[in-house]
Amino acid sequence: MTAPLALTSGERARPRNLINVGVLVIVTCGTALFTSLVFAYVTIGHLASRNWPPSAVPIDVYRGNMLAITAIMSLVTVEWAYYALKRGDPAQATWGLLLTAGFGAGFVVLLWQLGAKMGFGPGNAKIGPFAVLFFAMVAASAAVAIPGVVALVVTVPRVLGRQLSATNAEMLRAVAWYWDFVVVAWLVVYSTVWLFG
User: Which pTM does this prediction carry?
Assistant: First the structure.
């Protein structure tokens, strides 16, 4: 007796790396945003020559440094999470994601405190091009960090539920790439305002 022949499925195979391509498109748009803000900051600062940043504006060095350190620590933990999953260790990947989400939440809180401490507000004489560009860069950093923290938190149950694994780590790779962008964007802002400002 011969075995019946089975036909292959007529379903189309799921396209691979689709989420990675989407994240790379978003990162490209974000790179254009931060590049524009930095070039505007540098250009206006060059035109203002000696009075940039304005002498009446205190730059909070402590919070700027803490933001940079927090961002760098989160970069290490998100890559740890990805490589742990690729090695087939979901427990380590989960801890890496949770630590990164914690660092990300702290990063957003520090951005909020930095904006509140600067003291720009209606009726304040310090309002000017510096204030506008400074807050645009801080707000853009927060605007890209908040979805990153949400994506990290959403990824944790998928790792715990074994929906992501060493052979199916596409979502975690995309989240890690996005978080890498968040960190690099902040380090560019930090370098522009604090290191070279």
Answer: 0.85
